[in-house]
Amino acid sequence: MEKRFFTIGMAGHIDHGKTSLTRALTNVDTDRLKEEKERQISIELGFAPLYEDKEIQISVIDVPGHERFIRQMIAGVAGIDLVVLVVAADEGVMPQTREHLEILGFLGIKNGIVAITKMDRVEEEFIELVKEDILEELMGTVFENAPFMLVDSLSNKGIDELKDLIVTTLKDQEMRDARGAFRLPIDQVFTVKGQGTVVRGTVYEGAVEEGQSLKIMPKGQDVRARQLQVHHNPAPKAYAGQRAAINISGVAKEEIERGDVLVSSEHFIVSKTLDVAIRVVEDLDYLVKQRMPVKLHIGTAEVMGRIVFFDRNELKEESGEILCQLRLEEEVLTKRGDRFILRRPSPQETIGGGWVIDPRGNKYRFGNETIEELEKKKAGKPKERITAALAEAKSLDFNELIKRTSLDSETLASELEDPEFLLYNGKEYTLQSMVHVIEEDMYDRLQDFHNQYSMKQGLNKAELLQTMNKSFPKGLLDYTVEQAISQGTFASRGQYVSVAKFTPHVPKSWQKRAENLVEELKRDGLQVRYLADYFSKAGIPDSLAGDLQRFLEETGQIVPLDGQHFYHGDVFAAAVQSMRKRTGSEFEVGDAKEILGLSRKYMIPFLERLDAKGLTKRIENKRVWQDR
After folding, report:
1. Which of 286, 408, 520, 620 is surrounded by the fewest CB atoms within 10 Å?
2. Cα-atom radius of gyration of the chain, to the nearest Å?
3. Residue 311 sits in the same domain as residue 419
4. pLDDT score recorded for residue 14
């Protein structure tokens, strides 16, 4: 069985015994700072190994409980799999405990255990009353069905039982996704003498190994993982759910800050506009107004921004999810499904929290239409998310699809096997339906062109693509044309594309006049007038003359001598045949004049036309037949 890794958090009110309980469970004092020792409160996140066997490894985060350190508390719970809510028996649930409970709910923490500490301070007959009071306070929260454990950290009563319960609970739980790209939100940065810069955090997803090339986002700095440690022990690899310290090269400590994210790929999106679904706390003290400044806590980042509603201008109480948008002052790295907390900067209070629907939000109109679109985005299953991404972008490569859909590579690859998705050019994906839509659009454009210019071979391919390249990528348009040609829907005539069943023809209303023109040209044999004279005599207007001349040339009915004189195709062919019969492998101008009886006015253009067609080649004063 593959080993699994989890991180649990200790949360609760200040001075309810979280750090003491962590020390009793792990034999590690997580209060590291001098100031923490003096004030007997946790300011920074404290970490310790709790349990490890061949199946599972569990770490503990001691989350600060003081209101001033709410940011660290949010950063701590952002990466945990189970929460032990610590409530002192002699005080019960306090206001800050309730705020922590709301934050845990918004962050999607589902697994919890309630640890009632300092039980030795309460008379035994009051224990059940204490439990009832705490249970009543937890109704409607993620902890309302959580198991209760009575512990005392000083006497170690209940400590082993609590530890066993934690291990048992997590052995039945799936670990975080270790298949996707590596992501570690940074919550600590420091230097080690002789080693350089070290970052620390909980591996949110994926895995990392020594020597791997990484990026610090959203800054985009390239770094390399020189060494890894998991709980102060060297490790060749760190997995999702583990606390890891990574010694990185290529960047100074001053260039990194808490809130930055260490990643292994560019699949993640850096954005300032997020489409989100939020819930608000039950007892907001103030209205949340349209475009009001808010403070976003996501991962370990804390960013200012504004909240934008599309179906209201303010809210005070709302029990369901609200679909809206966050427009941030700074970029954050995120993906669909990431959880976050929103706080009011002044006066400070938790507004609510939620999850990212789309990290690449657009600007939308106010109204129900936008809400309906966001509802569709919110509900999307993997296939629907891929379809929506391709419907919007028309064509995306695999890496872009990972970014747009927030799916891991294995899930995405599996979904893309569906015949509704099409891989073309060896790297780009689109929808089969998209190709059909483009082909139908092209068909209609070509048919309209044929109706308007029936004498032309077709529409220049480059021109056809140009008429549509504002709506679709050029590569996709090119692929669609080639597919339609190979399947016999379209035909290719040199640089021109046409509907396959189309045959160039003179418009019915001009057919008779065109036939008269050609017949008269044929009657005149080798002694032709200017072509314009024939058009004029046939009553063909200048607006049609150019297209008709091109059509007659392309269909071989007329052959140009120069820009103004043309022979009927049959007359030209007969003249060539006569020349072949009465000359050897080569001939001179005089020979040709004698055979055809032409003046120099016609003779020189005729011979140059033979050269142009590749029938002859001029060598000094002679012409040599090329196909004898």
Report:
1. 620
2. 39
3. no
4. 67
Residue 73's pLDDT is 54
Fill in the DSSP letter of residue 261.
E
Q: How far is CA 55 from CA 7, 167, 247, 447, 563, in A?
A: 14, 11, 27, 67, 88
Q: How many domains does the chain have?
A: 5
Tell me the C-alpha distance between 285 and 487, whole Å: 67
Q: Which residue, chain included where needed, has tokens 């657009």?
A: 362
pTM of the model: 0.64
Point out the domain boundary residue: 362, 377, 392: 377
Helix (H) / strand (E) element for 497: namely: strand 496-499
The distance from CA 160 to its chain's CA centroid, rounded to whole angstroms, is 47
How many other CB atoms are there within 10 angstroms of residue 146's CB atom? 21
Residue 349 lies in domain: 269-377
pLDDT tens per residue across span 491-520: 998 899 999 998 888 888 888 888 888 898
The 10s digit of each residue's pLDDT in 198-207 is 898 888 888 8
In eight-state DSSP terms, residue 482 is H
Give the span between the Cα atoms of 508 and 454, in whole angstroms: 10
Q: What is the pLDDT of residues 207-217, one digit of tens each?
A: 899 989 999 99
| 216 plus 228 within the same structural domain | yes
Which residues partner with 82 through β-bridges?
8
Residue 23's contacts (CB-CB under 8 Å, 6 or more residues apart) are 29, 30, 153
Strongest mean pLDDT among 428-432, 463-467, 524-528, 598-602: 428-432
The DSSP string of 89-100 is TTT-S-HHHHHH
Q: Which residue has the higher pLDDT, 520 or 316?
A: 520
